[in-house]
Amino acid sequence: TQLLEQSPQFLSIQEGENLTVYCNSSSVFSSLQWYRQEPGEGPVLLVTVVTGGEVKKLKRLTFQFGDARKDSSLHITAAQPGDTGLYLCAGAFVGLGSQGNLIFGKGTKLSVKP
Amino acid sequence: DSGVTQTPKHLITATGQRVTLRCSPRSGDLSVYWYQQSLDQGLQFLIQYYNGEERAKGNILERFSAQQFPDLHSELNLSSLELGDSALYFCASSVISPTLSHEAFFGQGTRLTVV
Fold first, then answer.
1. Do residues B48 and B60 lie in contact, with contact meaning Cβ atoms separated by under 8 Å?
2. Which residues numbered 48-67 in A keep a CB inside 8 Å of some CB on B?
3. Which of A72-76, A97-101, B73-77, B107-111 has the lowest mean pLDDT?
4. Distance between CA atoms of A64 and A73, rounded to whole angstroms?
5. CB-based burial of residue B79 (10 Å sphere; 0-12 exposed, 13-18 middle, 19+ buried)?
6. Backbone phi and psi for residue B85, each to the nearest 5 degrees, phi listed first
7. What is the CA radius of gyration of chain A?
8. CB A62 within 8 A of CB A77
9. What is the pLDDT of residue B108?
10. Interface contact B109-A41, CB threshold 8 A
11. 8 A C-beta contact, residue A104 and residue B43
C-alpha cells in the first residue's frame, strides 16, 4: 500500500513565526503537489514539484522535493493568520497502477493566531 | 473558481436511501476523480475516469458507483446509505501531462449528511 505521511498533524503558532511541515513516503513519486484547503471548500493547488532536489518559492512559502523523490517539505516564513488552513500533500507514484490518481496525505491543520 | 462544478452543495437524506452527486470538469479536462473526505479519514480516493472509461479504483464501496458521460460530466451514485457515509465528497479534474504531472483541480464539494 502506498502511503503518504504528513507531520505534524496539527500546528498552532503565533503570527510572525516560521514553520515547516513534512510529507514522507517509502515510495518514489513521479510528481508531488501541495494543496491548501479552507473549511467547507475544495483543496486548492499551490505547487507541483517533479524533479528530485527541486525547490520552488511562492511568496513566503518554500517547497522542497527530496533528492530521492520520496519526501517533501513546505516552509512558511513569517506566518500570517491568512495562512490558516489544512495543508495537504499529494503524490502520483511511479510505476504501473498509479494510473494518474493522486494519493493524499491526511494533512497538517495550521492555525496562525494574531 | 477552479472551473469544476459540483451539485448539489448540500444533501441531507435518510439511511437506506440512494443519492446522485454530479460533477462538471474544467473545460478540456478528460480526467475526473472522486474523493471522500471525513474528519477521521482525510481525503480518500474513490475512483477515476478518463474520457468515459474507468481508469483507477480506490477504496470505493460496492454500494457506490460512478460513470463519466460523453460530455465528460460525471456522476457518483451512493446507495443503501449508512450513517458512516456522511462526509464531504469532492470531484476533481485534470489533464494528465506527458511528464505525469497530475495536477488536480477540485470542486467545492457536496456535503452529504445521512440521518
1. no
2. 48, 50
3. A97-101
4. 5
5. middle
6. -80, -10
7. 14
8. yes
9. 94
10. yes
11. yes
